[in-house]
Structures are given as C-alpha cells and as structure tokens.
Amino acid sequence: MQRPLFAATEASTRRHFLGQTACGFGALAAAGLLGQESRGQDDWPLGGVHHAARAKRIIFLFMQGGVSQVDSFDRKSVLEQRDGEQVNFNDARQLANTGMGQGLQRLMKGPWEFRSYGESGLEVSDLFAHMGRHADDLCVVRSLHTEGVAHGPATLFLHCGSTNTIRPSMGSWVLYGLGPDNQNLPGFVSISPSVGNGGARNYGSAFLPAAVQGTSIGRPGSNGRDLMIRHLNDERSREQQRRQLDLLETLNHQQRERMGGSSELDAVLDSYELAWRMQEAAPEVFDLADESAETLTAYGIDDPVTEGYGRRCLLARRLCEAGVRFIQVNYGDNSANPAWDQHSDLPKHENHARACDRPIAALLNDLKQRGLLEDTIVWWGSEFGRTPYAQKNGTGRDHNPGGFTVCLAGGGLKPGFVYGSTDEFGHQAIENKVHMHDLHASLLHLLGIDHERLTYRYAGRDFRLTDIHGRVVHDLFA
Amino acid sequence: MSLLSSEGPTIVTWLRLLLGVCIALLGMVSTRPAKAQDPDAAEVSEALSETQVEFFEKEIRPLLVSHCLECHASDTEASGGLVLDSREGWRLGGDSGAAIVPESPDEGSLLRAVAYEDPRLQMPPDGKLSDDEISAVRRWIEMGAPDPRSSSVPLGSRESTALPLERSQEHWAYRPIEPAADPARIGIGSTSRIDSFLDSSMADHGVSPAPRVSRGALLRRLMFDLHGLAPTIHELTEFEQDDRPDAVARQVDRLLASPRFGERYGRHWLDVARFGESLTLRGLVLPNAWRYRDFVVESFDLDLSYDQFVRQQIAGDLYAADARATETDAADSGAADVPQGLDEVTWRQHQVAATAYLALGNNNLEDQDKQQLEMDIIDEQLDVIGKGLLGQTISCSRCHDHKFDPIPTADYYALAGILKGIRTVKHANVSDWIDVDLPMSDEQRSLLAAITSEVATGKERLKQFDLDIAALKARMNGELPATLANVPLPVDVLPGVVLDDSQATAVGDWTFSQYSKRYIGEGYRHDANESQGMKTLTFAPEALPPGRYEIRFAFNHGDSRASAVPVTVFSADGEREVIVNQRVEPPIDGRWVSLGEYRFEPNGQCYLLISNTNTNGFVIVDAIQFLPLDADSANTAPASEEAEAEAAAENAALRRDLAALEGERKSLSDQIAEWEQQLALRPRSIGVVETGAGADVAIHVRGNVHNLGATVARGFPRFVSVDVPVPNSTASGRRDLAAWLTDAQQPLTHRVMVNRLWLWTMGQGLVRTPDNFGTTGQSPAHPELLDDLVRRWRAWDTEPKQLVRAIVLTDAYARAWTSSPSEEVSDPDNLWWWRGERRRLDAESLRDAMLQVSGELWLRRGSEALPAKLKEDYGFESASPVRSVYLPAFRNAINDLLAAFDMADPSVVVGQRNRSTVAPQALALLHDPWVRERAEVAARRLLTEGPALGADEELLGRDAGGEERLDPRVARANELIATACVRTWGRRPLESEQDALRSFLLEQGFGEGSSAEAASRDLALMTELMQTLFASIEFRFLE
Predict the structure, then answer these.
(1) Least CB-packed of A461, B304, B396, B845 within 10 Å?
(2) Percent share of chain B, pLDDT over 90
(3) Closest CB to B77 among A209, A432, A468
(4) Count of H-run helices and E-run strands, chain B
C-alpha cells in the first residue's frame, strides 16, 4: 500500500493510535470524522464525509484589499443619478471607532460602464469584462457581510473564521476533513500569499496537525516565475541524491532495528521516500512548459501586465488536475494597504483589474473545457467590499464589511444566478444576507462536509471553522 | 434563521464577540442568569379574546416560525438567552433584559431589532422583515402581546453540564495538596523516593521495568534534556573514564551549573509564555521584547524560586517601584530580594521586563473598535495566565459560564477587572504597545539627563539655522527677505517636499487665482464659497520616503475666508482631522500653518484631504509642504540644490555663507543624531503600566463589550478557597493576584509547574494535558507522586534545579525505550513509567547540534541586538550561529528549519509541542541550503582537523585492533567516519554502519590522489556523508 506523503504522528494518544493503524493521515481524518457512521464513500461518486459531495476541491481567487462591489458586480444606477449628493449613512469604521456611525457622506459614482452579459443578463462593469463573458457560469452573491473593519481582522476572518484568536485556516479544515487526493503533493497550496495582515496564519493549521498546513509557493507581486515548493531540490544530480538516499536508508533501517522499531521510526523512513517521490511528481505539475502557446496567450502570460496572475491561475488549474484540495490564488501584496485598497484614487482599481481579469476568465474557460468545473468550486472575492460613498468626501472609497459581492462558480453551484441584494446604494446587505460564516458552511457542504460536525478537540473543547455559527445557503446550490 | 436578544448585539457584533466562546456542543446550554419571575404566567391564556388569538395565529406565529425560532426556541441554543416559542419564554427575557414589554413596543428590544434601526442590533440576521411584518409586530405588542402558547418544558432550569462551584472539590486538581504519605516500597530497594512510588505502581499492575540505557546513551540523553546540546567527544571520554559510583550525579551537577541549562529550560518556558518579538499584524517588530527572554533564561540559570518568577511576571514593575521608594527612606532595604548572582540594577530591570508576560500577546492592534480590542487583550492575558500558570481554560468563561469546569462568567470578570487596571497599549488606528523605561544606575541616569538637555538645546539651534538658511536661499534667488512676504515663491526654493495646489486631485469645481500675490508655485485655488460639503482637494505625494514629517499648509488669509477648514491627514497613525482658521494670518512666514507631525510607512497610506464641509467663507488652498523630521529623510530632500547652484554662481559670497551655514547645521544635526542614538539605547522593555484607576468591571453579556450586565467585584477564581485579600483600591490588584497565584493554599500553580518540569525532563507529563488541569484534562496516574513532589519542591523554595536533579537521578529516568509485548498491553501509555519515553531532538536541539558538529555554534549568553531600525519582520532571516533560543522570535518570519520541526507557535500557549513526521522535514534535511552548508563546514572541519578520537578508541565502544594492517585509505576513512559518528550520534559506528559509510566514500574515489580536484571531490563526498548523518535516525532520536 502506498503511504501518504504527510504521514503524521501526533501527541494525542487516540490520534497517535489512528495514525499508526490507519497508515497515516488520509485515513486518519476519515476515520476520525466518520466514526461509527462510516459509510462507503463508493456510494458517492465525488466522495464526501457526511453526505455526498458536489465538488472535490476549491480554487479561491483572493482579491486582497477589497474590491468595490458597486464598481464591479453590484450596479447601483442611483449612484450615477445622484452622484455628489450628501446622504446619511452608518459608516462601519466610525461605528467601530466611536460607537456612532451616522453621518452625511457624498455618493460617488464609479468611472466604469456596466454591460449585460450572457443569457442571465448579469450586469458587470468594464473592470471585469473578461469575467463578464462567463456570466452564465457564475453564481453571484451580492449580499455577503463579514467581521472586521480593518484589513488585519477581516482578512483573518475570511480565512480562519475569527478576527483575532488563533484558529486553523479554511484550507486546513478542508484538508483535515477530506484528506489528500494526491499523496505526492501537498493538499493545500497558497500561491503567492501576502505576509501582511495575518500572514502565515491565513494558511496555517493552528492546532490541527501540522500535515494540513498550507504550503506557500512564490512571493506576492512577482512575475509568477518563482512558483515552486521550498527546498524541493538542490543543485545535485538526481543520481547523486539517490546515492545519498540509499546510504541513508541503509543506516536508517539498521538503526530502526537497533532502536527496537516503532511506527514513528517507520514514518521517518517513509518520509524520505515520500519526499523523493514528491521531487518526481511536483516539477511535472509546476512546469508550464508543456502548455500550448494558445493557452499561455489565453492566460495572458505573453503580456507583462497579466503574466504574474496568469501564471498563478494556470498553475492553479494544473494543481487542480493533480488533485490538490484547496488552492488559493492570491492577488495582493505585502503592504498594509494592499492592492485593491483604494482609499484615494478609485480609478486605480483598473490597474488591478487589468492584471487579473483576463487570467481569471481564462481559468474559468479552461476548467470548463476540461470538465473540471463540474467538481471544482471557484470562489472569487475579497475580505470586504467598499463604501458607495467617497471616503471623507475624497476620491476613493473606504472599507465596507456590511455588504459586498463574491462570485462563485462550478461544482454544485447554480450557474447564471444572482443571490441576495444590498440596499439601494449598495452599502448594506439586506435581502438574503449571507454571512462569511454562512459562505464557509455552504462551501464545506458542497465538499460533502457538515460544518457542524467537522470538529477538532483542543484544550478541552471541540472547535470548528464556523465556531457556533454558520448556515448552509441551499438556495445557491444547483 | 433569526432572532435577537434584548439590548443585544446584532449578529455582526455577536459573531465577533462570541469568538472566545467555548460552546463545545450545540444544544448544551448553560444556566442562565436569574430573571424576573412571572408568577401568573399560567393564567394568561384564558384571558385572551378570540380576535387576539386570531391575530396571533394569522400574523405573528408564522412570522416567528419562519424568522425566529430556528435560533430562539427552547430546543435550540437560544441565542442571547432568549426563547420565543412560548409566552413564558419571552417573558423571562434574554440575557440582557426584556425583549417584549406588553403594550409598550418601544421599550423592549424586539421591535428595535426587527426595525433594523440600531446597527448593533439587527434581527433576523439574514435580512430585514417586510414593512407589513414589522408593523404587525408593533400592533401585536401594542395589543399586549397576546400569546396562547404555553411552554411544555420548565424554563430557566436547564441542566448545566459544568461541575458546580460548590462541588469543585470533587475534581482532583482543586483539592489541597495531600499531606505526606510514604510510598509503600520505601526501604525495599527503590533507588529514590520517586522510584519507590513508580516501583510500587509497577508491582501492583504486574509491569516490569525496561533496562537502563548504556552509559554513553545516558550522557547523550542528559545532555540533550538538560542543555539541548550534543555531548562532545571530550565529555563522552571523560564520563566513560569516570568509574566513581557517583559519576552520574557529578555529571548532573555539572550540567545544572552550566548556563546552557537556563537556555534550555528557559526555552521551554518561552513556549508556555507564547514569546514572540513581532506581531503578525503588519509584521511590526517589538524592539524590546528580547529582555523578557533574557529574564527567563537568567531566572532558570540562577535557579530563581518559581514563586518569585511568577510574581515578577504579574507585578514585577510594582515591586521594582517599591524598592525605589524604600531606597529614599532607608538606604538599602529594597535590595533584600535581589537574587544572588545579580547586581541590583539588573534585577530591577528584570523585574520590569518580566511583565512583558502580560504584553506579548499577538493581538490585532488594528481593530477599530478599541473597547473590543481592550477586552480581547485581557482575554488573551487571561488565557495565558489560565493555561500557563493554572492549567485552566479560564477564557472559556468570557461569554458564558464554563461548560465543564467550575468557572462562572463572574469569576472571569473578577479577574478581568484586575487586568483592566493596567494599560497594555496606546490607542491609534493601529494601537501601539508600551515600551516602559527600565530602572537605571545613578550614573546612567545623570548621563541620560545631560544628553536629553543637549538634544533639546541643539534642536532649538537647528531651527535657527533653518531660518537663516531659508533667508539666505531666498536672497540667492534674487529676492530680499524683506520683500518676500507678498510675492509668489517658486516651489523649488522651499525645503522638503512641496506640492502646489495644481498637483492636487480635485473633487468639485475649484477656481484658480493669482489675485493675492502671496502664493507658492503657479497660483492658488478657492472653492468660490459655494457648494459646501461638495468639494475636496487631495494631495498625495509620490514616493515620499518613509519617516516622520511636519506637514504645513499654505493659504492667504482674509476676512472673507472660512474660519474652520477641515483638513484630514491619512498617515501610518490613521487619520487625523485638523481644523484651520483662514481668517487669521498663518503664523509661519505669513504663509504656512503647521498641521502637526506625522509618520509614513513604506506602502502605507500617505495623503491629505482638504474639504469645504460646513465652511463659512472662501476656502483657499495654495500648497502643502512635507518637512522631514528624521535625519535620514532630511538629506533626501535636495529639491533646491540646482537652484542653489545657479544662484550661488551669481553670488559667490552668498554661496560661501550658505556652505558654511549648512556645514555647521550638518555637524550639529549629526551630533544630535548621535545623541539620539544614545538616548535610544536607554533601557526599555515592552510592558504594562497601572492606569491608577483600578475598578471593578461589569460582566459582558455573551462577551459583548457593548452589552454590560452586573458589575463584579475584583477577585479570584472560587474553585479553590484561598485566604488572600481581594483588591479594592485604585491599584489594579496585580499584587494580590500575584500573592494568590503563589499562595500555598492554592494548589494549581505548583502542581502545574511540577508537572511541566517533569514533562520537560522526562519527555511526558504525569498529567498528560499540561495546560489543562480542568475536568476535561487527563487526571494523573500518580496523584500522590505529583503531590509528594510539590511538597518537596516547596521545601526547596520552589527552585527548579533541585527538582530536576531529583528526577534525573531516578531509575525511571535512565530506562531505555524498549518494545515489550506484555507491557505494551498492560500499560500502552507508559503511565507507570516502565520504559523511557522515546525522545527526539526538538527543532532547536536539531539546529544547535548541527552547528555544534560543524564547529560553528556561538555560545554567547543573552540576546543579540536586533538590526537597528528593523520595523517589520517580513522576510527576515538570521544567519547568526547563536543558539536557537536567541534567534529573533519573529512571528511572520519563523526560521524554516525550526518551523518544519514543530517549533511552538509563538502566538499561543504551548505546553507540549506537536510531534509530527512529515515529508517537508525530509526535504529540509536533504535540500535546505542551510543544512547543506552546515554539512559542508562540518566536513571541512573534519578533513582539516583530522580524526579526533586518537588513543581513546577503546573507550568509545569499539576495539580498533587490527586496523593497522588495513590499506591506509581504508584506515583513514574509518577514522574519519568514527569521529563523524561520535560527533553526531554520540557513539562509534557499528561494523555494518562503518562498512556502509566507508563504501560510500571509497567507491566514489575518496582519498585517491592529492590534486585540487581530488581535494574538492573529497570535501563533496564528506559533505554528503555528514548530511546523511544529520538525516539519520540515530542523530534525530535519542536512544
């Protein structure tokens, strides 16, 4: 039997036992979760832990900094009609700072035209004209709301379901629940994550086993040619490395016997072999050389403007094919006011849209053509949205956690569908509100996981991604 | 889904506030606080008219069912403590009062919540009800809220799952330390008192002990356990030759006396104290956090009593202040408590630095709700004190009574009140931690005062220089200072970065003008005194070098101008609004007003916005000036250099004057910079300060900072009864807390620490959940041994070393890890300690031992200084060969190798680390360039120095006889291999190992020839071999 890459042994006796007897991590989680109710996953073509899954994996396109919903997917013609008018709003930042949010704010229209796309007639601004062409694949949620007025707290909440306390990230929970689909690759990859606003905590495993931690690849803002697993290889020839590994295995086998053996020592022996196999498997996945010129062009890899995000998106498709469970494709940077954070000079949104719109559309198209969209969830979104009014009457928009848009597509989601709405200005979600916890719960549901039953016992209590909250929004499902 | 509590939060604040909630199992609900009694609830239904019932059934019941009862029914979590599925339910109200006051719709919170008017209280959470539904609710309440539904379950009496306070003594950990009782086997052959406890358990359970490890293996175990380092060849040899009966005890004493012990055990404590030197938020570096590390390491090194150690971390600053105060009264009375081995100033500094324990939390200082942030910080402190010192999950009681342990919410807020009396941060957009001044020697103090006053005078002189220079420059531009007042000034004669109004981004129509001649650049702009609130100008300097600046705003004044122009500056410190009166003459040169000092970070927000909101006259905008305040950025503003050169060419005399003036200015500013550097070295530590307004705090209902319940007197958890006075003054009460924590009647602190010391020494605790001694933790298999150790430790004044010594000198400590089918069945978890725990090198030991083998380890004592001016930890890598405990503990830049090997997460209390075996560890050992470099340095050392075993061969386990006859290449390889193995494994290779290693070398030509290529081949081969040894089981594990 092939051993999983991340064979884990852990302090807890129960899990230690499971880890030993169930041959490592994948089996461990499934055994831990299913317990007595275990039913053959063969019944469910896409797998699933608590019920049949509709999707096997997630690609999360993180737009760091906060894309403005009223300038992208939530058109409010009232902003065009009443541009410049002073209107009373409850401002989230003022509310948090002072406990009093009410005040006059100047409505501000955005500089972009909206057009209708596809049979669904979804209105999308010219910022995302390429994504617009996939309107009939998108499931657009216009009523998202979340926690945290500043980037730090809101970004952590988006990833870990908590604004401050140390919690595992969503990708880690997914991997903990489902186990890896490919034993030779990490099951959770975050491509070019920012080190700011929570940094590694956004793909960390916290108290979950180390094996489910996200593997970060590449630096933010690069041209995308740095996307490789750390320390996967060095300058030595394969032959040299094998000779060393043979020597090591000779020693380790003897020493394992001498020390009386144990599953932990077996795991050490395995880990070297697994690393060796990963060295073989990973470059194949990470090297884009076998992609056609058309594909590279489609993703915008031939254009310096789109090359960086294009390479990340194309890698995401390849990781998806290779069986990685959770792939996060970050569009952001390391600064305190990241990428999409246009407090002043809203038109700068366009620079960012130009860099990622085309690659995202290419990814959607590519997944669809290859049949991968069937069982892959694509999730596009930010940590929060932006206000429909000018910040301090200036030229930009402030943060807005009270109402914003995420776009979903793929496995089990209704295509060409819009759910929920914000108020007449696009400020607060009012109809069919979807909290970030609800989004987490719903996405887990599509993966065959009941968010209330995906728990981990730590410090005397059972923890889950959605804490004590979260509601599955069945209306989003096809 | 829906529902609300009275006075309650919106779902938004709820979710935030319930973060710390410890609701483990849905459906388990705590006992709710007492609420108003409703004596005649049963009779109400009879009084309802048919119309009322019909209205309820038609309008209200369906609404409740579809929007509210999912969360607010008696069989649910009952959010906010409110149930709406019976009249008895809502009559009881929620956690914070009445939801419905019959006939008074505006009094209860229900209508307010469904009307969505209060942004903190909006229900149902998934969307507002229709206007018709809302008015139906209003009418229903106006009618007196007729409700025919009666509850079938008794309300307010739901069973709590927690152990109640009055029965807390049923749980072992809360009971007093048991009086001494001799173990059964005393005197019948057990080596030590500890062994006699364990031996009798083993005998009772029919378990036989494993044999002792070999002497070499025992020394390696002792070295890694007590020092975290490998034994050197010299140490191994010496120990092997020592055949005195107390050889082991001598080694133990030697190891305990070494400073390496403090570094090792200090590191263990740093895990518990979630020690870090930066915040993940923005990677902000805490420049003085290292002092806490040094306090901890030195405390273990000096064998400071644990009671003292704990007390300093809670209230060390207060004790240090006491000492200062008494000094003035009686000469040296405050010096009495200075531990031996330390001078008084160092100890006073340690005392203050110790309180960093309360301040090191990885908090999200950017939270915009500062009340929330303060309670989050207190919660973090309670978590660290709770788990770290008491083994209690106190922070579970933030929102509701503890689900399992006897910790009511009131006890949480009794402790929270104490911590509320100290300040840990100063608020700003991103709140700032507090660096407190440390005590200094008299000499240091007077030096500091002298420099401070020099700097102040120097800065005054600098200002004069600036004025003189500006005047001179103006003259060189053909203007005379006297006439400067009312003429246009070009931008480039002005110091700093100047943005003309033409460079601003305009919202609304701004009128260009040159009417008044007192302008800068092309002209100025005004708002025509129209469309108030509709116009702004935004100034955003491109690529302003980060640093501190004074910002000035230029306009021409006049009676027609606005008297209150709002100007908002967006800087690294958030946004600040300054109101400018344009009717009076600007104080600086008649042109400028200062908007104050601001700080800008790389990529941080940096702009300024002038608006005509609520203005009462013309708003005039001429220019904005950013004047650098840091010495560094001052030099980067040479905007005027070219102009100077031209002007100077026209007037050489002026130029010489200017050069002279600038030269003087430069040397003065350099001198000031140097003084300031010295001032920056003034000892400070991250810490806390008393607010001086200590007071009791109110229970935060469901953890909500905006929903306060009854005020709770400050005090201590009541699960144990301790006779310590409860704080009630304007002091925070930290002294009392410190006294309570270390009081002998309070059993947890000592039990928890004895268990930690056992765990750090034996590889596994007597209580297997070191941070959780509550009812959900594991009970000890040896409660009587634990208590016996506590009593003995108290007799040793809670000094760690004595206890560690007693533990390592047992038979139990020296047992081998063996596999034994019968014992593995009867005691699979090794509760009776029949075998040694299998130990492996933890992250730090692994790194340090590699540096030892390569000969590079730098055994410096104390923290290294962080790179000067390091503000953010992003991407930081240290190449320093210091012990791992001294590497900067940056939370965003964790050392790759340490992270791969389960280093403790520096953001949370870690009493016991993970123990994972994963492929990235294999990748790190085989491909991390750092590891390969260590292997290469180790190989070079070995090849250069040659074999180090020499004549001691027979001592280290193998008879080398006969090797004289071997091929010299073979013999040399064998000798080198033997040295390499002893360095890494602490023993000679077995024959089979030696054969494998030698074949590896010789088959690839090792030792053939003497050319330069041959030498580099040999080095490469030996590097491969050393790295293989680093990756081997024998190096990574202890026998």
Answers:
(1) A461
(2) 50
(3) A468
(4) 36, 22
